[in-house]
């Protein structure tokens, strides 16, 4: 599925591709139909917002392999009329970019005015500049990295381990067994959620406060932060799919466009023609600012028109989701450049 | 159980208490009896080492509630001849310090020349200075914090969640059911292990290297870092006890000596007479250097003789376990001061 916001202009020069992150979807802005909440980038996409839909035609597709509107592990395989489940093919960031290029072609547009996204969405933006240099004029790579670190992989593996050892997982065949590894998925998400927040922000928000007994989601909860994670983990585990979780974390772990260029990112970037804007957030410890600086250095070595912006970002990795004056001003200037 | 190293001198002025961390034990140095490996602080304790057993009598007790030699959840409750299991009482850092004070008294020693430890061991050292100011002359608080942060609690909660949802956990009654929540404990340890290492160190050691198929511990493993975590998690889950894991993480989460002093650490420290040495490691993200600096500032505000030392520490939180010239020189100088 694809959402769009704004209007395509007559010379088709104002199309922006927005790439979603791990648990996002095509629903990037506003409230559509019966949506309970606004899209994941509603703070940034809309009339007079950083990504101004008065000026731009914003295209927001759903990533292949997902569980919120694209063909993925919960879909029926047409070959055998069974649910894909664990047999859904491995997927990569490049696969998404290739499918997005097919969408571009289908729309009859020659190039994106900009491709942008945060986190796993930023990885897609970077891949776009490398794979289709003629078809992207600008790319904003936000709160992302040119490859997953050893620690990123390790944290994802703990989440996968938790899912795989849920007795309801059945080696990935849970749907065929009419069940679901809810507990394992919940634990995986609780961990991932911690990596999206900053330590400072958690201290300010929850600190060491004891949870009111009346509003505990579980009797084993002592601290507010435990209650919050229990609540968030539970909610996520009721909406997301476990095989998809494994598939998507594998895609993130596998991202490494420099791999085919002797592990030299500047080599991978040597044919890039897009202007790059790389944004890192100080409080992000999942893809810390150092990852952004590494990309900027490689871009400079490749002679690309690139700039690096470091923002404070109070919300850790999730900072890319929230607007503020400096973030907005820089994105606007970049899109209008 | 208690191990000792070195000899108590005639005026009983050279006794040092070493407090172990989360999964440590009384076995701090050397190899005793059939020990497969050396004690956890073998790099620092011994003749001519930082904690020189030619000069000091080192006392290393096992923390109450543990599963490596003290009464804990795997012990038999004398009241009903059943294993304690989940019914073992909650335990706190203060409980350990109180039991260590009984040991001091039993040894007929009036005061420790020094109390020291890393991580949860450093918390005990800090608590000693507050609770028994007359009975400790020096305290070294290493890679620790004056309280667990919201993020610390959150990460521990993910580990506990993983254990509690293992179908073999039986609400903590697994021993009565002749089983053991090995998978849940393994996942908890995999996560904890990541928090003990630094991101840089993981990148240097494992990077994004693919695991040899021949030496994979599990067929689902792709990367070396996954293999390493699988191996470490497995090994730990065969040696540790799940109820003890929950008990010990709760003790760490609950540590907050300032709580009874209007949340003012300098108030908690106002009667401290011991000299303090606080050590933080740059690459430690579990108890980062900021936590050490906070203690140092509170100590200065209380007028305590205290110094703060920041070391590079290549191994993240685990850096406290490994000696190097600067670490050794500073500890030696402090112990001889």
Topology:
2 copies of one chain form a homodimer.
Chain A: E1 2-5, E2 15-19, E3 45-46, E4 51-52, E5 57-61, E6 76-77, E7 82-83, H1 93-106, E8 114-118, H2 120-131, E9 138-142, H3 150-164, H4 182-196, H5 199-205, H6 224-239, H7 242-254, H8 265-268, E10 275-281, H9 289-301, E11 306-311, H10 325-335
Parallel strand pairs in A: 2-5, 2-8, 3-4, 8-9, 9-10, 10-11
Antiparallel strand pairs in A: 1-5, 6-7
Helix pairs in contact in A: 1-2, 3-4, 3-7, 4-6
CATH topology of the largest domain in chain A: Rossmann fold
Question: Can you tell me the CATH class of the largest domain in chain A?
Answer: Alpha Beta
What is the residue-averaged pLDDT of chain A? 96
Give the largest interface.
A-B, 45 and 44 residues
- Helix count of chain A equals 10
What is the 3D form of chain A? globular
Can you identify the CATH superfamily of the largest domain in chain A?
Alpha/Beta hydrolase fold, catalytic domain
Assembly form of the protein:
homodimer
Low-confidence stretches of chain A: none
Count of folded domains of chain A: 2
- Rg value of chain A: 20 Å
- Structural class category of chain A: alpha/beta
What fraction, in percent, of the residue positions of chain A are helical? 25-40%
What is the count of β-strands of chain A?
A: 11
Alpha-carbon distance between the termini of chain A?
30 Å
What profile does the largest beta sheet of chain A have?
7 strands, mixed
